[in-house]
Write a structure and sequence with these properties.
Length: 334
């Protein structure tokens, strides 16, 4: 099946949040001022079970999805995540990936690999220990993240995509150092424009470092040339080093939006389907699962949701839209 939305976009890329909890408090995603000690995270009973996640993932695979990403919050906080990976790795023709802040990765990389995980994305916003500690806002040292990347590399995860959210006046001075650190390593750094996700991160356009500027910064040190997208809907623009020492990516949701080719769906940890990262509301699928719906009913519900999709938030972004109600990124994953 090849379900298309109102802009003839297929669903190819499913992101499943397995928890809304995280052990970091990155200000651009989960500011401590909002997600403090008293914040009411989802109770366990409201989380989709592994069996329910497996059913949803298989339904999306039947609808045409070929990529499945496990996210959070921080997915390695979900107990038994390796068992879920093993279940999902059984789904045919699925590229199974996971995005983590790597705080727990050093001890878990081998088990994730053995469970059948194909690829890893690691969030790392600076190599400068002081900057990194202040950006994660839990005083977590950068060395432990590098240890996690090292352990994942040792068990065969390659290339690992290293995601750096760039914020002007915070870590934009660390862009070239980050590029240099992983140049020639086989891993790929992706520099992400700071986005107005959710309503709690105090987003301002002035804090955005455009992708073009990031490429110029790196290219001044190590000349880059563009690479054509590998497939429709590829999120990052790809650039290779002219000297053959690898590539980097930039994700330009603010300055060069790419909604026209967006093939991404997201499912929250409590079973709501979101058709855009900037949606205000989601479609409840958990009730259907818990009321005993069979696969046919699930497929019909999913098809109906996707066929009505017309999201183009980033292409329609304006000063007015950036303050409208939007789901928090920590609730549905990036
Ligand atoms: S803003 Fe929404 S529709 Fe546009 S690329 Fe992002 S997730 Fe897709």
């Amino acid at each position: 099946m090849n379900v298309l939305d109102t802009l003839a976009r297929p669903v190819r890329d499913l992101r499943i949040s397995v928890t809304d909890r995280c052990n970091f408090r990155c200000s651009y995603c989960m500011p401590k001022s909002v997600f403090g000690r008293d914040y009411a995270f989802l109770p366990r009973a409201e989380l989709l079970t592994f069996e329910e996640i497996d059913r949803v993932a298989r339904a999306f695979a039947r609808a045409g999805a070929t990529k499945l990403r496990l996210t959070g919050g921080e997915p390695l906080l979900r107990r038994g995540i390796e068992d879920l990976v093993a279940m999902l790795a059984e789904i045919e023709r699925i590229d199974l990936t996971l995005t983590t802040n790597a705080a727990l990765l050093a001890d878990r990389a081998e088990a994730l690999k053995s469970a059948g995980l194909d690829r890893l994305n690691v969030s790392l916003d600076s190599l400068n220990d002081r900057t990194f500690r202040s950006m994660n806002d839990v005083d977590f040292p950068v060395d432990r993240v590098l240890e996690g990347i090292g352990a994942a590399t040792a068990v065969g995860f390659a290339p690992i995509k290293i995601n750096m959210v760039v914020k002007r006046g915070v870590n934009d001075g660390d862009v070239v150092e980050m590029a240099q650190r992983f140049r020639g390593s086989g891993h790929i750094v992706r520099f992400i424009e700071f986005m107005d996700v959710g309503t709690t991160n105090g987003w301002r356009l002035d804090d955005v470092v455009p992708a073009r500027e990031i490429v110029e910064l790196i290219s001044a040190a190590h000349p880059l040339e563009p690479i054509d997208p590998a497939y429709r809907g590829e999120v990052a623009q790809r650039w290779r080093y002219q000297d053959g020492s690898g590539e980097v990516g930039v994700i330009s949701s603010v300055t060069q939006p790419f909604c026209g080719d967006c093939t991404r769906a997201r499912v929250s940890a409590d079973g709501k389907i979101f058709t855009c990262l900037f949606s205000a509301t989601g479609h409840d699928i958990r009730s259907l699962l818990r009321e005993g719906a069979d696969d046919e009913a699930l497929d019909m519900a999913l098809t109906s949701i996707w066929q009505k999709r017309n999201d183009q938030y980033s292409e329609l972004r304006s000063a007015a839209t950036s303050s409208t109600a939007k789901v928090e990124m920590s609730y549905i994953g990036g």
